[in-house]
Amino acid sequence: MHDTTPAMVIAVDGPAAAGKTTTSLVLARTFGLDYLESGKAFRVIACEALRRRRPVDDPDAIGNLCDELFADGDSGSVLASARYTPLALRSPDVTAAVPVVARMPDVRRHITALIHQWAAQHRRCIIEGRDIGTAVFPAAPVKFYLTATTEIRAARRVRQEPGHTYDIVLADVRRRDLADMTRTIAPLTPANDAIEIDTSRLTIRQVLHRMSAVCRTRGIDNPTPDNHISPASPATPST
Ligand code: C5P
Known about the structure:
Layout: E1 8-13, H1 20-31, E2 34-37, H2 39-51, H3 59-69, H4 75-80, H5 86-89, H6 92-102, H7 105-120, E3 124-129, H8 132-136, E4 142-147, H9 150-160, H10 166-182, E5 195-198, H11 204-217
Helix pairs in contact: 1-11, 2-6, 3-7, 6-10, 9-10
This protein binds cytidine-5'-monophosphate.
Residues 16, 38-39, 42-43, 98-99, 102, 129-132, 176, 180, 239 line the site of cytidine-5'-monophosphate (C5P).
């Protein structure tokens, strides 16, 4: 296959609420990189399947839905639609449906193509997900795999999304971990050359210092050096 890996792509993979979004956003600003949250694309498909009353567990129906959604080749505009608010994409129904669609070959093919298309236009980038370092960009020059215990991740998610009860969130995190780790195509697993960081007992600042140090030793520099690490600043919840 033609290697579409951008010269400067940082892959940040790991399970839900391991700290991927918070750290990726800060690293993006620190090193002047464009940022992509690949999970959003999977959530958009699950969200549209529910909205259009398509059976989420039917690969043909979901394959057709992907063809409709991404028909014009302009995937970026689909994902940018104002309809997909965090509230809509993070509803319990969407969160339950997303690993079901994420295991389907057609869905993964469409989204991998979408990410390649985006990265072709964003040559210095950081992409978070589950399979970026293993399947989407296996030749990425920097790969991180963030993790933490399920209990700590569930507690973080409850703090980020008040209104959800701990037991329900813990069950959801376990269910999604299992589905993401055991699927046949592009399962969630660290790439052989990924730097694994267990964030369970680390502050965001400590995680960021480790990640930044790795980036610097791999030759990633900052074209706009007025940026600095500021873990308190990202407004988006960590995942
Ligand atoms: O990152 P987020 O929690 O929003 O991802 C939602 C779901 O999308 C994951 O649980 C997983 O099933 C799927 N996903 C994936 N591969 C990615 C990103 C997300 O399978 N690269």
